[in-house]
Design a protein that fits this description.
Layout (H helix, E strand, L loop, with lengths): L6 H8 L10 E9 L4 E10 L2 E6 L8 E4 L4 E4 L1 E4 L40 H7 L2 E6 L35 E7 L7 E11 L1 H8 L3 H20 L1 H5 L10 H11 L5 E5 L2 H14 L3 E5 L7 H7 L3 E3 L18 H8 L3 E3 L10 H10 L4 H8 L1 H6 L17 E4 L10 E6 L2 E2 L5 H9 L16
Parallel strand pairs: 1-4, 1-5, 6-7, 9-10, 10-11, 11-12, 12-13
Antiparallel strand pairs: 1-2, 2-3, 5-14, 7-8, 8-9, 14-15, 15-16
Helix pairs in contact: 3-4, 4-6, 10-11
Length: 450
């Protein structure tokens, strides 16, 4: 009986031992895009998992040299809101650890516990130049408040219909790296996520005003709890609406030490959220902001960054009537720090395509590169640690055979933490197995056939 492809064997192949990070390596002769500047005929030297130097000098004596002449060298791209490592098949609950629908656990939901280093989504994303990702939980109330494929109106009426509300918060995000290995977690609990707009209104009972009142009441309870932990243990304070775990998780949000990622699309809702953040002392990150160009100056004045997909330009509902392809360019021109998203878990690698489309609609090329690299790192409090080619930063380096924003350009070499990565995915292995219609190399039988 012919055997089907062994997923275990494929997974083992995808985590093959990489080149040792301690090796002194110099990538020379390429056009180096550092994330903040451009160096022609540059040299990037890496060792011990870190970038040693970036400039125009010769390769150090004894270094392994990678010839990048005629190629482009960039920092590893950072995927934001991609769900990488936490979701395999969105329609199969057992493989989706991005959301939680329990009423007793909302803010305390932590995606880091569900991360899978052997996820088949990681090698595919690496082929698109992605070396790090911010994994943001989706709201359990209706299919993901943080995916650009989700119509927020899916949440509408959730509370009003008498269904159990999954809470106002989606949970806590994590930063991961995509290197082959067994531990991909870089930092857990980097931000809290919550849907607003139509999504938040539906959860709160059907109206935006209800959500804002509930949100402010929640923060008041969190601050009360933080001041009276001992009384809470003795049941000496009034009953609170949240579990202890959720109260603890929200303390950093309430005191401004943890950013709150708010999914919001309509310009009017953006302004309301900006006012709320100022009143409550919240460190805010906007996710979506499809109509952000209408209020770009207000967003910039508030110093609030935006995670966006620049090709979200269709008026899918009343929240996005004014969506347009120039959104990224307008926000950038106003001085807003932006990070460009991909197209979901399995298409996270398309973030660079989205950035290229933004360039064709007015976003400067350098700003597009920054929106894929240095900006996400800075937005989530890890600036200087990755996302740019500078001495001391993690050696996440990608060599391209052309413009990284062009779909036909490919990755020719990739390093994560100084480890050279295997540029293979499950899809490539399947292609190679069947491309010639005969018996594959290595003597493995075809899965189907006579």
């Amino acid at each position: 009986m012919r055997r089907l492809i062994s997923l275990a064997a494929l997974a083992a192949a995808l985590v093959a031992t990489p080149v040792l990070a301690q090796e002194l390596t110099a990538i020379t002769g390429g056009r180096v895009l550092t994330g903040t500047s451009v160096i022609e005929n540059g040299t990037v030297v890496i060792q011990n998992g870190r970038i040693v130097s970036v400039g125009t000098g010769a390769a150090p004596s004894g270094a392994r040299v990678i010839d990048a002449r005629g190629r482009v060298v960039t920092p590893g791209l950072v995927a934001v809101d991609a769900g990488l490592g936490a979701s395999e098949i969105s329609s199969v609950n057992g493989s989706n650890d991005l959301s939680n629908s329990a009423n007793s656990i909302s803010a305390s939901f932590d995606v880091s516990y569900g991360l899978d280093p052997w996820s088949f989504t990681l090698p595919v994303a690496r082929l698109g130049g992605i070396t790090r990702a911010v994994v943001i939980p989706s709201h359990g109330g209706g299919g993901g408040g943080h995916s650009h494929h989700v119509d927020d109106s899916d949440f509408a009426g959730l509370g009003a219909a008498g269904l159990q509300s999954p809470g106002l918060f989606a949970g806590q995000a994590s930063v991961i790296h995509l290197a082959s290995g067994t531990d991909i977690l870089v930092r857990p609990r980097v931000a809290m996520a919550a849907p607003f707009g139509e999504a938040g209104a539906g959860i709160a009972g059907g109206a935006r005003g209800a959500q804002f009142v509930q949100f402010k009441e929640t923060l008041a309870e969190v601050r009360l709890y933080a001041r009276n932990r001992a009384a809470y243990d003795r049941a000496g304070i009034r009953d609170l609406s949240l579990s202890r775990a959720d109260l603890e998780a929200l303390i950093p949000v309430a005191n401004g030490s943890m950013p709150l990622i708010v999914t919001v699309r309509r310009a009017a809702d953006i302004l309301q959220v900006l006012r709320l953040a100022e009143e409550e002392g919240i460190d805010l990150i906007l996710d979506g902001a499809d109509e952000g160009w209408l209020v770009a100056s207000q967003i910039a004045a508030a110093g609030v960054p935006v995670l966006l997909n620049p090709i979200d330009n269709l008026p899918g509902n009343l929240e996005t009537r004014a969506a347009r392809m120039e959104n990224a360019a307008a926000l950038n021109a106003a001085g807003v720090v932006i990070a460009i998203k991909g197209n979901g878990v399995h298409r996270a690698r398309e973030a660079r395509f989205n950035a290229g489309n933004a360039v064709s609609h007015g976003l400067p090329f350098e700003a597009a590169i920054a929106a894929l690299t240095v900006n996400p790192a800075r937005i989530f409090g890890m600036g200087g640690q990755f996302g740019e080619l500078r001495p001391g930063a993690a050696a996440d380096v990608v060599v391209w055979d052309g413009d990284p924003l062009e779909p036909l350009s490919s990755v020719t070499a990739q390093f994560i933490n100084g480890q050279e990565q295997d540029l293979t995915s499950r899809q490539i292995l399947l292609r190679d197995r069947y491309r010639n219609g005969g018996r594959p190399a290595g003597g493995m039988p075809l899965a189907y056939g006579n």
